[in-house]
Amino acid sequence: GEQEAKEIIARKDETPIPILERLAKDSDEKVREAVVRNPNCPSNDLMELAQNSTDNIQYSIASRNYPTPRGVLLKLLESENKSIFSGLAGNTYTPPDILASLAENEQRDIRIKALSNANIPREVLSEALLNADNEKDVIDILREQSKNRQNSPISSDLLEELSIHPQDSIRYWVSTFTTASAKTLERLSFEKNGQILENLAQNPNTPASILIELAKRDRDITDKTYYYHIHSRIISRNDVPAEALEHIACKSASLAELTLRYANTPTSVLELLVENISETYVLCDVAKHSDVTLDI
Question: What is the signed CA dihedral for 272, 278, 282, 284, rounded to 10 degrees?
Fold first, then answer.
């Protein structure tokens, strides 16, 4: 119908500004909502709708995936609607100082969203994580910040402090960060917790020396449930050290098979497999390997 056609026009990037300005005053809420989600929505219309519109449209302005004029965001902060605050807290375009204020909101979900935002000021995040009364808050923030990867404001120094936290779940999330220092990753490599060790095995920043040490471990040292997973994660890395493969390949036939299937297996490992593995199917895989020589 006519309203649906207006919505489609309101969403299009190429829609002329004069038409967007007219649609911003349309009587249909869905049309106005489509206008505010358009990256070219005029600032004066955003301000008008931020002041005099429904909660749904104000939320759409707060959560739009484009830069929004600061004055418009400040106007939204005057609202008492929790969903609008939540939209601002979760929006990566929200300025750091506004996120800092939202990080002190009385509503837990708003605080967690703001502290999980990649734009939260580093010092605000550090203080919140180190002084949190509730360990679940720390876990939830770390879980969400880990999704930001290299853009996370969590510093390597903060990760180092959190790596000695008594709560396993907190150390678990620390081990997922690619920004963790070699010192932090080495500290975590002495853990008994298999999930943490598995994270280290697949963390792209884990040094080769730690991968080799993990590869040396036997079932009586490593969490038995994760023993196979840890070694298979090491094998599947593109940068797996040859020495790590040498230690893993002879531990079991199943790991030997994985070594041949996923890794760029060095000749030294092929020789070790021939000498130490008796299972026929593994030896057949060795014989088929592209790097096998007559000497082997």
Answer: 100
d(CA 159, CA 151): 15
| Contact in structure between 119 and 95 (CB atoms under 8 Å) | yes
* Tens digits of residue pLDDT in 36-80: 999 999 999 999 999 988 999 999 999 999 999 999 999 999 988
Least confident of 97-106, 203-212, 234-243, 276-285: 276-285
Model confidence at 154, pLDDT cuts 50, 70, 90, reads: very high
Report the distance separating Cα 126 and Cα 124, nearest Å: 6
Of 51, 103, 42, the C-alpha closest to 73 is 51
* The token pair that represents 176 in the structure block: 């997922």
35 vs 257: CA distance, rounded Å: 57
**Which residue type, as a one-letter code, is found at position 80?**
E
Burial (CB < 10 A; 0-12, 13-18, 19+), residue 261, is exposed
Residue 90 burial (C-beta neighbours within 10 Å; 0-12, 13-18, 19+): buried
**What is the C-alpha separation between 193 and 222, in angstroms, rounded?**
8
d(CA 267, CA 293): 8
pLDDT band at 273 (very low <50, low <70, confident <90, very high): low
Q: Please tell me the distance from the alpha carbon of residue 231 to that of residue 224, in angstroms, as a whole number.
A: 12
pLDDT band at 254 (very low <50, low <70, confident <90, very high): confident
Residue 241 is encoded by which pair of tokens? 């050290």
Q: Is the pLDDT of residue 197 over 90?
A: yes
Sign for the CA dihedral angle at 204, 205, 210, 214 comes to negative
